[in-house]
Amino acid sequence: MGSDMRFTSRHAFAPLAAVLLSAALAASPCAAAVTELRIATWNVENLYDATVNQPKCALTGEPEDAEWCPQSWRRWTEERYQTKLTHLAWAIDRMKPDVLVVQEVESRAVVEALAARIRTNHRWTFDYIAHRESRDPRGIDVAILSRYPIRRVDYKSKIGRRGLLVAEIEVDGTMVAVLANHWKSQVGDRETNIAARTAEAQEARAEIERRLERDPDAVVVCCGDYNEDMDGPSIVEGLKPANDRVAALASTNGSAKDARPYNLVGDIPKKERGSFYYARRKIWNTFDGIHVSPRMLLPSDRPGPAWRAGRPEETVTFHPKEMRWGKDGRPNSFRRVRSYEEGTDGDKVEDSNYYVEGYSDHFPVYTTLHRAPAPAAVGAGKDAK
Questions:
Q1: What is the C-alpha separation between 138 and 162, in angstroms, rounded?
Q2: Model pTM greater than 0.70?
Q3: Which neighbouring-strand residues pair with 37?
Q4: Where are the alpha helices (DSSP H) in 51-146?
Q5: Domains and CATH numbers, the chain
Q6: What b/e string do you get for 80-105 counting C-beta neighbours within 10 Å, with b at 16 or more?
Q7: Is the dihedral angle over the CA atoms 74, 79, 85, 87 positive or is it negative?
Q8: Any bridge partners for residue 107, and if so which?
Q9: 371: alpha, beta or left, given left = phi > 0 and alpha = psi -120 to 50?
Q10: pLDDT per residue over 12-52, tens digit each?
């Protein structure tokens, strides 16, 4: 508006208000028919605030977040926490997901802080959050952030685990079930860890089957940090996925128990799909995955789920140059680097003990789903032929 414009009554604002409201609705993800839905998963690596405020861990007797304060060996400060929020928000804005599954978050408060940072720095946000406090010894949880309404949240909790978080998200009159996972790490005894991850995989599998038994065309997206490669023993035994689209589609002819979810990361070229780098062995891993129910692979002109998997190139391991580090291009983590000299615990503040202010030790993965035509439209297309 020009500086000479004047309003003499409150009614003079009405046309302007209508224009602003119209513009706001146009910018809203719920304003018109939604044809694409981007879903991302990211282990954001130890997103803790800098205040010790968690309950005591039964194993150590210390607060679960005792390491994450200025006095601990991590030297975790409010300033560093705020910087990490800014970095994560930048990466999320670059991806612009409609639904984001995150792992390794301390609490709902830090998830809300992340959403607020996106709003402040990038002028959009997630208005809906699904989160439950886990029973993990480190106090880390999973959460789901969404631009669309979350209508129901289920949480399956186990002692010592992050648990399976399930959110039913309403998108333009359709329901999308998102399963958030963060399975047992590979730290410790190998067989014990495989057994734990297999149990977690079986729990996710049972949830998928339950939904497909109720509705064979249910839209189910199972994703997260599995802490195991896409062809690992726990995934194969517990989740029972297909290793390619053809095998997944073949399973749609059977019952829910025959359904074989497909990991869309398999569509990414092998040289680009690594999301975690195991530095000790110099190995790239595909720990982060996005499985979809097999009928979501059907062509859009076939009857089936309201949402379908996109083209192979629409699933991406997101790793711009800012998020890569070193000659091997591994994830640029946000971490403290310490040197352990004889007679010290590595806490001495010196040039060799510094912070690398990166992002996370994982790259995020995202995919784009597409809205299938309504059944009537599909039928009309066939009749026209």
A1: 10
A2: yes
A3: 369
A4: 78-95, 108-122
A5: 38-384 (3.60.10.10)
A6: bbeebbebbbbbbeebebbbbbbbbb
A7: negative
A8: none
A9: beta
A10: 333 444 434 444 444 445 555 899 999 999 999 999 999 98
